[in-house]
Amino acid sequence: MALGRMKTIVRQLIDVNDQLYHLALQKTEAIKSGDDEKVNEIAQLETPLVGLLESLEEKRKAEVSEDLRHAGGIGSKAMFSEWERIAVPEEKKAEWRELYERLVDSVYSLKQANQLNQDLLRESLQWVRLSLNLLQPQIRPTNYGNPNGGHDAPSPYTGRIDSRA
Fold first, then answer.
1. How far apart are the C-alpha atoms of 45 and 160, rounded to whole Å?
2. In this predicted model, what pLDDT tens digit does every residue of 67-78 receive, in sequence order?
3. Which of 19, 35, 95, 118 is deepest in the core (most CB within 10 A)?
4. What is the rounded (10 degree) CA torsion for 110, 114, 116, 118?
5. What per-residue confidence (pLDDT) applies to 67?
6. pLDDT tens digit sequence for 143-155
7. What's the pLDDT tens digit per position in 106-145?
8. Domain assignments of the chain as residue spans, ordered by start
9. At the top level of CATH, which class does the domain 3-133 belong to?
10. Using CA atoms, how far apart are residues 127 and 73, in angstroms rounded to an integer?
11. Which residues contact 93 (CB under 8 A, 6 or more apart)?
């Protein structure tokens, strides 16, 4: 069991999550200021980091699976806590718990920042739609101004003169 490899992978995961978090903060400011070019630029910077994050996660899963297989044949869908229980010696558990909590905090911070950006973008899109709806002329049927679609409601005054009066 290679604790050193796993520690390296987890630290890299934390680092990439932190980089993505800082980009998410920059994106928040760009969205608030309406700078769509900056938002696109940041999205392009995020793309390789997301790919790196995915590959690191795959390495982490493979390492956990390998260690658990050697330790007793537990399936590949095992949780980190199971790996920690089997692979980490008792004297290093506090260090691993701290490292794991740092990873969880970095993932949570990134998730919160991305949720804020998603909400801001959704709100911006709603404002754009509202503005467009206000600026576009409303199309009305051309039936000589009758809003009932050409069918007049019966009127008590028909235009004839009642001669009985």
1. 78
2. 777 776 655 566
3. 19
4. -170
5. 79
6. 555 555 555 555 5
7. 999 999 999 999 999 899 888 888 888 888 766 666 655 5
8. 3-133
9. mainly alpha
10. 55
11. 84
